């Protein structure tokens, strides 16, 4: 049996980094959902999920993760995933989440959502 996932947020000026560790399952996504609701209600709408310490995500659970991205978008927010191992990246891409996987790492080591070009 794999250890439960842990979820912890780090706030920066503009972005909330949600660090996750362990093996992500449906029950853990329920915890993530509650955590995201709290952040969105606190007007924290730029969110990066840090998956550097995530060991496994099943394909079925990855499809549930798509709902969390839609939740954040429904609050006019932006959420990306960063710190993916090639193994987990492949699972998420196969689940159709490739649009949410591009994140940059700033010089300070803080994960930031990728910037979208502004129309001029």
Q: Span between N and C termini?
A: 53 Å
Name the poorly predicted regions: 103-110, 114-120
Helix content: 25-40%
The CATH class, by name, is Alpha Beta
Strand order, largest beta sheet: 1-2-3-4
Percent of residues in β-strands = 25-35%
Mind telling me the CATH superfamily name? Answer: STAS domain
CATH architecture: 2-Layer Sandwich
Oligomer: single chain
Largest sheet: 4 strands, mixed
Q: From the helix content, strand content and strand pairing, which structural class follows?
A: alpha/beta
Number of strands: 6
Write down the overall mean pLDDT: 80
- Following the backbone from N to C, one meets helices and strands in this order, namely EEHEHEHEE
Radius of gyration: 14 Å
| SS summary, helix count | 3
Fold and architecture overview:
- With 120 residues, this protein is α/β, with parallel strands linked by helices.
- It has one domain (6-113): 2-Layer Sandwich (Transcription Regulator spoIIAA).
- It contains 3 helices and 6 strands.
- It has helices at 26-41, 59-74, 86-94, and strands spanning 6-11, 16-24, 46-57, 78-82, 103-105, 111-113.
- The protein has a 4-stranded mixed sheet with strand order 1-2-3-4. The chain has a two-stranded antiparallel sheet with strand order 5-6.
- Helix 1 (26-41) runs parallel beside helix 2.
- The termini are far apart.
